[in-house]
Amino acid sequence: MNASPSSNVCSQITPIGRGAVAVIAVHGKLAETAIDECLQTPNGNPLSSRKYQDVAYGIWKSTGEDLVVSKRGEKYFEIHCHGGTTASQAVIGSLNAKGFAEISAAEFSAQFQDFWSVSTQLALTQATTPKTASLLLRLVTQLPNQIQQIRNLLTSNEWNVAATHIQSMLKWSKFGRHLTTPRTIVLCGQPNVGKSSLVNAMSGFQRAIVHDIAGTTRDVVSQALALNGWPVTVKDTAGLRNSDNPIEIQGIAQAKAQILNSDLTICVFDANEPRQSEIAEIVAENKTDLVVFNKIDLLSPNQPVHPISTGHLPTVQTSVKTKKGIRELIEIIGTQLVPELPGETQAYPVTAEQHQRLEETLDCLNQKSSHPINQALERLS
What we know:
This protein is α/β, with parallel strands linked by helices and 381 residues long. The chain has helices at 31-38, 85-97, 105-112, 115-124, 130-155, 159-170, 173-177, 195-203, 246-260, 276-285, 326-337, 352-367, 370-379, and strands at 9-12, 21-27, 39-40, 55-60, 65-71, 76-82, 101-102, 183-189, 221-227, 230-236, 264-270, 290-294, 315-317. It folds into 3 domains: 9-112, Probable tRNA modification gtpase trme, domain 1 (Gyrase A, domain 2, 2-Layer Sandwich), CATH 3.30.1360; 117-172 and 342-379, no CATH class; 194-224 and 233-256 and 267-321, P-loop containing nucleotide triphosphate hydrolases (Rossmann fold), CATH 3.40.50.
C-alpha cells in the first residue's frame, strides 16, 4: 500500500525468509504507545523514558518471545526478534491490530530516507559474499555523504570540482554493479579437454556431467560460484570443433554467443595434445583472456608441457585429478576480473539507476548554465 510519511506503518526491513534476526521498523505518532502496550519490560519502564538509540529488552506479550526494541527517533523504532517468518509476522500482526499498516521495505525506506541511501541499502541485501557485503556496507554511509558533498559544491558554484568528483565515481561504476551482479566466466575449447571437470574442481563438487566421450557437453551449463570472494557465474560450453551433428552444431553456436558476452573467457587445452596452429586459431577467434593447459597429470614424470606460444596471455597448467594449479587458476581469475580496488574513501554507484543519475548530472554540468545546474541538483536528490 502507499502510505504517507505521517501514517502509522510497520515493515520488515531485513530480507524476508529464515534468518538469525529479523528487524521490523515501526513509524508513526502511535509507535511508542503501541509498542509499550505490546512489550513487557523487566522494570516496567515505558519507551518514553528511553533516549535516542537506547535499547530496551522485553517480552512480546502476544507471543511470549524475548526481543529488543531500539529507539531510532521520536516516531521511529526498530524491533529485533527471531529471524523466522512466524515470529516476525506475529509481531507485525500485533501492530496491525493497533492500527499500523504493513508496507514493503522499499516503500518504508523511500518514505523516510533519500534515494541514495535506500538504493544502496537494498543493494546490500543482495550481496552474496562477505567481501561484497563489506564493500556495500561501507557505501551505505559513504555514497550518500559523497552525493551531499557534490550538492554543496553545486550550490557554491564550484561546478568543475563537482564534475571531477562525479567522474571519479563513474570510473568505478562497473565494479560497483558487479558487487551484486555476478561476472560471467566462459570456459571454451576443443572437446574432451576437461572443461567440465575444471568447473567441478572450482565448484568443489560434482556439478557438470563429465565423460571421456568427446562432445559430452551439448548445451551451456552454468554454475554460480564465489572466486576469491567475488560472485561469478561460470559457464561450461560445448567443445569447439567442426561437426556435422545438428545438435552439436547448435551447442557450438551457443558457446560462441556466450563468449561474446562474457566478462572473462578461458580457453582450455589438453596439455598432452598441444597443436600450435589449432591453439592459435581458437585463442584468436574467441576473445581469449586466459589459457589453461589441463590434464598435466597424464604427462610422463620427466615430460614438460610442450612449449606453446599464447602471446601476452596468462597461462596456467592444471590437473583436476591432483588439484595442481586449481588454486593458482582461481587466484589469476580473481586478478583478471578485479585488477584494481577502489580506495577506502572512494564512493561509486552500485545500481543502474545510480549510474544513470550521475551521468545525467554530469551532462547538466557540461552545459554550464543556471537552469542545468538546477536540473543537476534535482538528479542528485
